[in-house]
Amino acid sequence: MQVCRTISDGRNTVATFRQAGESVGLVPTMGFLHAGHMELVAAAKARADRVVVTIFVNPTQFGDASDLDSYPRDEKRDLQMLEAAGVDMVLIPEVIDVYPEGDETIVETTRMANMLHGLVRPGHFRGVTTVVARLFNFVQPDLACFGEKDYQQLQIIKRMTRDLAFPIEIIGVPIVREADGLAMSSRNVRLNAEDRAAALIISQSLNAAEALTDKTVESLRETIAHTINSEPRATIHGLDIVQAETLNDISGVLTSPAAIMLSVEFGGVLLLDQRVIQP
Ligand code: PAF
Question: pTM to 2 decimals?
Answer without folding.
Answer: 0.89
